[in-house]
Amino acid sequence: MCPYYAERFGNASSIHHYGQETRAAVESARESVAKLLGCRPAEVVFTSGGTEADNLAIFGLVCPGDHVISSTIEHHAVLNSCKHLQERGVEATYIPVDGRCLIDPDDVRRALRTNTKLVTIMMANNETGVVQPVEEIGKICAEADVYFHTDAVQAASKIPIRVKEIGCDLLSISGHKMHAPQGVGALYVRKGTVLEPLFYGGSHERSRRAGTENVPGIVGLGKAAELAMKAFENGEDRAMASLRDRLEHAILDKVESAGVNGTGAPRVPNTTNIYFDYIEGEALVITLDLKGLSVSTGAACSSGAIEPSHVLTAMGLRPDRARASLRFSLGKQNTADDVDFATQLVPPSVERLRELSPLYNKTAVNS
Ligand code: PLP
Fold first, then answer.
1. What does the pLDDT look like over 88-110, one tens digit per residue?
2. What residue owns the CA closest to ligand 1's atom 8?
3. Residue from 101, 122, 153 whose mutation best tests the ligand 1 pocket (most atoms within 8 A of CB)
4. Cβ-proximal residues to 59 (8 Å cutoff; 6+ apart), any chain
5. How far apart are CA 37 and CA 30, in angstroms?
6. Pick from 30, 46, 59, 365: most CB atoms within 10 A?
């Protein structure tokens, strides 16, 4: 990426040689992203990230009077887009999930209406890592002649993606979830799918996304896609899954009243979401962060109160268990030593917080 910040700064739309140099870099990145997704380069539209890709797919297709089908566990980039459309006269159905965080494709079939324009259901959930049955959903959409968009932001580079096998018309990815920089992403748009653009301006990206391209970001995304393909060939996804499993088993061996959210469902290899009853997840995040371990909760702070994750509550978790859940995500740089560091740190930290919890003491006394 570095030369495209400092030396090769031509505008990719210019016909002079500086411009042609960056145009070549953008097109080569487009080819790499197309290989990662199994599509044609012309079907890749670069965006500013996953949020924009999701918005372009949804607002680009759905109009007042249409019906859209989504799910209760989508990222807010999709959920809030659908909610906003509802204020504009669009009808929406949100498909529920079971206790494993899985959608039943038959629920999608049953939700179809004559005015259904789009089904937008994510490929992998960002909190639990659970992978949805997108191929079955794709078939249902194709049979019903309804557009299918899938948010694959958490799936890209973690599991192989073949848009033809999924049968989707639109698929979103984001750079920073695959070791590319923040602020870049892409939307796969199946040939022949006509989208209303989000922005009006120049005819960049075949008039689907106006604005001068973020060349360094795009170059980074292309390189990340290329490295992700190599990583699949080398079996790095399987190695990551076994590190994740080692982390889970070691923590669950040492901590009682804890468990994996989404267990029993197919998951991307880098994510585990674990509940630790009787603690506040936010307190554990801060405790672990101070000791050098960065993890997260899916909880959101709204009006000063911590709201439990909408994903975990949609799976049927009690609010206190949802608030006591943490997401651990592995990256390509993580090693077995990192996992051991985490497994040494987490159990005593949970124990310490539980000692401070009146709820835990009461339970211990009662039992
Ligand atoms: N969709 C999912 C599933 C995500 O996890 C995220 C980001 O975390 C997004 C969309 C939004 O992507 P971006 O941050 O690139 O806008």
1. 999 999 999 999 999 999 999 99
2. 126
3. 153
4. 81, 85, 196, 198
5. 11
6. 46
